[in-house]
Write a structure and sequence with these properties.
With 254 residues, this protein is α/β, with parallel strands linked by helices. It has 10 helices and 11 strands.
Length: 254
């Protein structure tokens, strides 16, 4: 439940269109709903603007579907990360019964259903190579689900810096930049020297042996001499999408 839905319930009670008992029934699972296997935090979006999101990896498929069903019943939407096609089949069937459209993003394994119809402000997502696209897709889908407009620029790594010149307009117009890179993780530092916008750097696990599964890129980003760069965990496109959306929302609200 978000602020708009809560205000709608309270306004309906005020105008006499909804009885107290009905309103209490709609609010009974605040702050959370105990499903036994999980305590679904329906109150989260009211507290800090971002609804609870399901991390599918390591969860039983029936539990994912049950949690998602509870979320959709209350809010009409759900976002699931690191999900398989078989998980999507169950979620899609559940959403179709509720007349909600669900989409599966195969590269990242994200499932999005009933997200924001509005796209406000602008976030730019830049990734060094096409191997980084799965992480970029997770960031893009997350930010769009939350209500931000996102533009993606792919394959602009430091091995061919001339390619990033054509992204100048995107860099200027964005309120926040997500810069994704594996290997040696140099791209955020390069972009950071070209823009005054806040940068969210995401190291990926892409690379040869001494990339150590993304640790080399992570350390490079953490040790950047360019100030104003926030660094996410390895492959954490979701976290980058959330932070970029929050920054973008502040700019839109002004």
């Amino acid at each position: 439940m978000d602020n708009k839905k809560l205000k709608g319930i309270l306004d309906s009670v005020k105008r006499g269109r909804t009885g107290i008992a009905e309103a209490m029934d709609r609010l009974k699972h605040l702050p959370y709903e105990d499903l036994g296997v999980a305590k679904v935090d329906h109150h989260r979006e009211l507290r800090h603007g971002i609804p609870e999101v399901i991390f599918a990896e390591g969860k039983a498929q029936k539990d994912i579907t049950r949690i998602a069903d509870a979320m959709v019943k209350k809010s009409g939407k759900v976002l699931i990360t690191r999900a398989s096609k078989s998980v999507f089949r169950d979620i899609n069937a559940m959403c179709r019964r509720k007349k909600i459209k669900a989409a599966y993003y195969e590269k990242s394994g994200v499932i999005a259903a009933g997200g924001s119809a509005d796209r406000n402000g602008r976030i730019a997502v830049l990734c060094a190579g096409t191997s980084d696209i799965p992480v970029a897709e997770e960031a893009v889908v997350t930010a769009e689900f939350l209500g931000s407009r996102v533009e993606t620029v792919t394959d602009v790594g430091v091995a061919g810096l001339h390619r990033i010149v054509h992204a100048g307009k995107v860099l200027r117009e964005a309120n926040a930049l997500i810069v994704i890179a594996g290997m040696e993780g140099a791209l955020p530092s390069v972009v950071g020297g070209m823009t005054d916008k806040p940068i969210i750097a995401v190291p990926t696990s892409v690379g040869y042996g001494t990339s150590f599964g993304g640790l080399t890129a992570l350390f490079a980003m953490l040790n950047s001499c360019v100030p104003g760069i926030a660094v996410m965990n390895i492959d954490n496109g979701f976290g980058a999408g959330v932070l970029a959306h929050k920054i973008n929302s502040l700019s839109v609200a002004r």
